[in-house]
Specification:
Elements (H helix, E strand, L loop, with lengths): L1 E5 L6 H12 L3 E3 H11 L2 H10 L7 H12 L8 E4 L5 H13 L6 E6 L2 H9 L1 E4 L5 E3 L18 E2 L6 H15 L1 H8 L3 E5 L4 H12 L2
Parallel strand pairs: 1-3, 1-4, 2-3, 4-8
Antiparallel strand pairs: 5-6, 5-7
Helix pairs in contact: 1-9, 2-3, 4-5, 6-7
Bound molecules: adenosine-5'-diphosphate and adenosine monophosphate.
């Protein structure tokens, strides 16, 4: 099964993608996570990506596409995957379609997690990410047992630089300009399914499972 998670930054794509990956035992591929890992390791790619990420801009397509295509070659992708944060532009979607078509494959679903802009700043300013394992929490909607400490690995939690309100507004604009058109793009391919992302995360998950079972 090959799934794309669509939705604004902070809509809950990562949260749902992790739950789906666990349930179906397929990898969760987050380009944002890959860039953050590169930044942490101080790679050239990480240095380049950081310049854009800190401003709330998209990393150029040419730095993203090859990265994902390479990731697909790994053994764990043979039964499918969940894409989170990719594709984010029409050229990225076209590159993905082309690469899949070349091997006789296609995406099965594009799940659009719908959350209005008014909720997004609140979601992102409350998001906390673990510096160790990358798990994400929310101070109000999904708190850790001990404040500031990851439930899974015990490391410290941080507010991502690009989750600060001034950057979030930029990211939302970029989303509407460059990523939202993908809903139409995949709509034309007949694979978009909308879910209400404003309800409890377990209810969002059940709505997605319901879609996938049909
Ligand atoms: P995205 O991957 O789309 O950027 P995340 O999955 O990281 O978004 O979610 C953004 C923030 O909102 C996180 O702090 C997460 O814990 C929280 N969150 C995710 N889904 C929900 C939900 N259904 N209700 C409330 N908060 C949520
Ligand atoms: P995310 O973790 O998905 O919210 O991504 C964080 C940031 O990484 C984005 O704001 C972009 O700067 C960058 N990024 C992640 N995925 C992509 C992508 N597919 N194309 C361009 N930039 C991306």
């Amino acid at each position: 099964m090959k799934i794309i998670m669509l939705g604004a930054p902070g809509a809950g794509k990562g949260t749902q993608a992790k739950m789906l990956a666990e349930k179906f035992n397929i990898p969760h591929i987050s380009t944002g996570d890959i860039f953050r890992a590169n930044i942490k390791e101080g790679t050239e790619l990480g240095k380049k990506a950081k310049e854009y990420m800190d401003k709330g801009l998209l990393v150029p397509d040419e730095l993203v596409v090859d990265l994902v295509m390479d990731r697909f070659k790994a053994d764990d992708c043979k039964d499918g995957y969940i894409l989170d944060g990719f594709p984010r532009t029409i050229p990225q979607a076209e590159a993905l379609d082309k690469a899949l078509a070349a091997v006789g494959e296609k995406m099965d679903y594009a799940i659009n997690v719908d959350v209005p802009d008014e909720n997004i700043v609140n979601r992102m300013s409350g998001r906390r990410a673990c510096v160790g394992c990358g798990a994400t929490y929310h101070i109000k909607y999904n708190p850790t047992k001990v404040e500031g400490i990851c439930d899974k690995c015990g490391k410290e939690l941080i507010l991502r630089d690009d989750d600060k309100p001034e950057t979030v507004l930029n990211r939302l604009k970029v989303y509407h300009d460059q990523t939202q058109p993908l809903i139409d793009y995949y709509g034309k391919a007949g694979i978009v399914r909308d879910v209400d992302g404003t309800v409890d995360m377990n209810d969002v998950f059940n709505a997605i499972l319901d879609i996938l079972s049909k």
